[in-house]
């Protein structure tokens, strides 16, 4: 725990100038200055706010679908062996490259998503690549090296989704902090629930091609892609609503501002927009 940083204002190993910069970046990301302090919102109220927000459940469904579609990783050496590589040493050596490729892919797409401030495009492309890999695993059955190459697509795509969605959730629901924490907790809980059923995709009776298994994986990849598209649509519509509110609302009119929700107030005062 001693290695985990606290809030920027209280992190001792940062200089004063670094604290100011870190706090400014947090404020810019959240679209509000008072997000830096502890807000007077109870834990239970934050949980209630999170459970009533449909975006939270869409993110939770996305995480559950992604976790379900990545269940192949629990049996990856066996899958490589069933493709047609029987030597144990060869199987173990062939297990690592798809994950190394997925690491480079996920890091690259996460970096691009951060710089472009466009999460849905990076996550959507990764989902499409993952679905393509699963389709090829279902349809191409005779060529071991081709099937092995398709595992690169599946690994890169699924881990590419993971690399963008949690930061996307945090930036979509930046405040109050307890609501953001509850939203992340809900998403994590739903994601872990996938382990209750996803491992049953890979029963011995589906060997050696595991076509039914890859079919289940494809279905959850498609569900993840649908969630990404849905979130993009909802957040873009929210940004259009902000633009209309900004045109119609005087920031000095306290009565009008009091009728707006937190995100709309930040849009009027600080130009806050959802990252799509």
TrEMBL record:
InterPro entries: MFS, MFS_trans_sf. Keywords: Membrane, Transmembrane, Transmembrane helix, Transport. It is a multi-pass membrane protein. Signal peptide: none annotated. It is found in: Membrane. The chain crosses the membrane at residues 56-76, 96-113, 120-141, 147-169, 181-200, 212-235. GO terms for molecular function: transmembrane transporter activity. The keyword Transmembrane helix applies. Pfam families: MFS_1. It comes from the Eukaryota. Its main location: membrane. This is Major facilitator superfamily (MFS) profile domain-containing protein.
